[in-house]
Amino acid sequence: MKTPVLKIEQFKQAEPLTDFYINTIANHINENKNLISKSHKHNFYLCVLFTKGEGIHEIDFSSYPIKPGKVFFLRPGQTHAWKFTSPPEGYIFFHSKEFYELKFLEHKLKSFPFYYSFQNPPVLTLSKKSVDFLQKKYEEIYHEFQHNEAFRALKIVNLINGIYIDLLREYTATINLEKFISVNYLTILENLEQLINTYFLKEKLPRFYADKLSITTKHLNRVVKETISKTTSELIADRILLEAKRMMVHSDESLTNIASLLEFSDYAYFSKIFKAKTGLTPSNFRKKYG
């Protein structure tokens, strides 16, 4: 069974605005429960603010607690699912890459650390003061979305940009900002992740990706180390592990076949590596998430 990939147009939205959607969490869940009741992917960027409620948000098989003040970020292609233990409140919006970047030709989504790499945490915890401040901005976007007034799209994009900048400052409050300054490094990292997504099944060595990017392996490792504190080899291994998890949960392939499809020498070696990385055997992982 393949993981469904949801598209923006599947969700109710006002016309003629396209490539953007916003709703309260409560309305979103109620109106789209048939779409989002199971684990799924998106083809857009998503940002959600919780002001009430509790539960678990699973993103690429990592679990994060849902509590008031939590903000989650998802990039296209990530698998996620909600599990609520008390009714949630807050706001959720999502948009295409083009909706944002066509208005900001000199500023890209990859400039934001919560979007430029799958390796960065997809969650942020805000203080009550910050929640109250940002909630007003989400409410303003929600109001604009519901009323088809002049320059609606432009105002919404500017409001989104303001929210992203405020969230960036919170996100990087305890991190050395110098590593976020080099646009060149961010471009290399983004291109590397795209290449890994394309070739990881066949190409496991950093040199292949360095050659594709027309840089040395040493420089590629420097870029990855300075942006996400990992090596290129670790980044490739992480992608292989994520694919293993997705196949275990969203396909009917046997574990032996999955190991073979991922080009491990044998199942025993695959199982050893998987347990070392996750703390679970492949069979126990499948039972937990299946």
UniProtKB/TrEMBL annotation:
Keywords: DNA-binding, Transcription, Transcription regulation. Residues 190-288 form the HTH araC/xylS-type domain. Pfam families: AraC_binding (PF02311), HTH_18 (PF12833). GO terms for molecular function: DNA-binding transcription factor activity; sequence-specific DNA binding. The keyword Protein transport does not apply. It comes from Mesonia hippocampi. SMART domains: HTH_ARAC (SM00342). This is AraC-like DNA-binding protein. The keyword Thylakoid does not apply.
